[in-house]
């Protein structure tokens, strides 16, 4: 009972939608209050889009949808980026944060999905060699 | 040698399958020759798997990049040490390593029971060989063969992920795997007991040490993983509630519950079905953890590969095991009735029962949270995740309840605690606990959960210390020994009990360390050489770090490495230096951060080189490229996790140490045990 209660409150208080950029845009259009809600978004980091402010802590970059690259938004992030973050190659990222009314995603967490870095398929490996 | 290893893997599969069939058949028909033949196949499979493992290691050491697995996890300049650990660096090698360890434990279990417990052995061997066979099947037919060749050999391998090039990461997976595989032995005995109907406590007595061994490795494996995360991931934390971490925690939770509930069965003849359920659940969770780590089913910073075929095979296997075990337990239900009922809520039985319920609740909640994205996607088509706050919200109160029970359980009486028993054992510890919490409050600590943890920790510690003092005094009086001698003899005479208390001490330290994190401080600052940053420790003193500059060099397997040097002073007094690095591995594009840690008993000073403004310039030793951003942290009590782990290790070794069962001592030993085991 107690545990059930704990789990229920735990889930309701901490659950976050995990969306693609397209889904996020659709939601915000239907329901503008969605700007206030914390969400998790998975998309592709646009190559060469990263820059940082002069105070050196505010990072800017652009994230696009995996399927439709025209759906994209700028991201602001004020913390340490993971080592694996790299805008010089194709990379998928997961963001947590809030999509502000001004169309900027205010990220509190940035993770990189780096499956390909841990393990490459033989084809990829061969590609490396041919290069 | 490599070829030989590959052949050995292929031969091991039929031998383990035939061996399993012989074992079950020989057991059913009471044919000793068949059973012996099956035991011979246990030894043979182990020998073959050693050849396989040597084959893989040789492939790594000789840079055979024509093998896909080697090409993906090694490169020429990689340290020899990490090349050897390549055996368990990726999914394919890990599966070989897993089955090698299972085979090793099968050999130990078979050999140590070659003259005794024969009524269990045929089915035990059958179960062990079946599981071995299953893993070999996966290895050979699920696209994960470590000996798979590439169409042609690349000039160099892709290298090992730099984050895995860390001492703790080389021992963390093997330790966990030892824990996972060791638990297969108690599971095999439990299934054997169900099959042959010998459902008294015998199977528990036989496997008690195995359960401890498995628990011991799981606990250490988890702690090593925390150590790795703390040193290598570079954000000052040690636990992320990441799916893979959760997966390793789950079997530990149920194994801990099991370790306690078997004591009720041994002493009071209760909870028989429950224990069967726990042993099966824990085994399934070890398989689940093995599979989750290497499947990519759930996104995680740890997952390495996506192979849905393997996910399907593992889930089918787990489903089959679950169904088979449930059927066995239902079939034997009449023989699994409790001999007694719980008489009072104020009793050791009920304390242990609460302990079990909480451990299982925690396991369930963690599992639910881990699988939540999959569940919501399956039901609503919309993925919803829960993050670390969910896990913390649930596990914090559960953890505190367990901490309290850790103080209550060992000293409350069996059956029904009298008023006298309660007063005698709990007044002093309660007073100490409350005073400690109050002291911290008066010193200015306002974090409620941390205060409760400190109070409860003090309560538990007092209970344990009082027990040790009482035991030592009693022994020194009766045997006429000095206090120190009496203390060691006391532990020696009932290792399971006193070793268990020592493990509890370690666990209390780990809990305290978790609470200490509530007081952590951190700040981020960009500095030019000569500038400094000051951080105040919650313990009252100030650390000042003065940035001295960057220097770069090339290292083994590194294209470049730049080191930031900080002069550290405490309240104005210089106390040394601290360095943090950015490394560029030759096989890796992105630079990797190496943190600097200065460890003290109560706190760590933790330095992260967050970024260098002109990293390429810094790598070239450009004197203009010195501007860098740092994060400085003071992490309170974090070292106590490692100290706690060390104490858990000592306690664990004491509980598992084989008793010197010579006839001469046995009377004395019994006397000692009855004295030590008695409760006032």
What does this structure look like?
The complex is a heterodimer of chains A (131) and B (680). Chain A has 131 residues and is of the alpha+beta class. Chain A has a single domain, classed as OB fold (Dihydrolipoamide Acetyltransferase, E2P) (Beta Barrel). Chain A has 4 helices and 7 strands; from the N terminus they run αβαββββββαα. In chain A, strands 2-4-5-7-6 form a 5-stranded mixed barrel. With 680 residues, chain B is an alpha+beta fold. In chain B, 62% of the residues lie in helices and 12% in strands. In chain B, the strands form 2 sheets. In chain B, strands 3-4-5-6-7 form a 5-stranded antiparallel β-sheet. The longest helix of chain B has 33 residues, at 348-380. Mean pLDDT of chain B is 87; it is low at 299-305 and 661-680. Strand 1 (15-19) of chain A pairs antiparallel with strand 1 (384-386) of chain B, so a sheet runs across the interface.
Low-confidence stretches of chain B: 299-305, 661-680
Distance between the termini of chain A: 60 Å
Helix content of chain A: 25-40%
Percent range for β-strand residues of chain A = 25-35%
**What is the topology, as strand order, of the major beta sheet of chain A?**
2-4-5-7-6
What is the residue-averaged pLDDT of chain A?
A: 76
- In the CATH hierarchy, the architecture of chain A is Beta Barrel
Radius of gyration of chain A: 17 Å
Oligomer: heterodimer
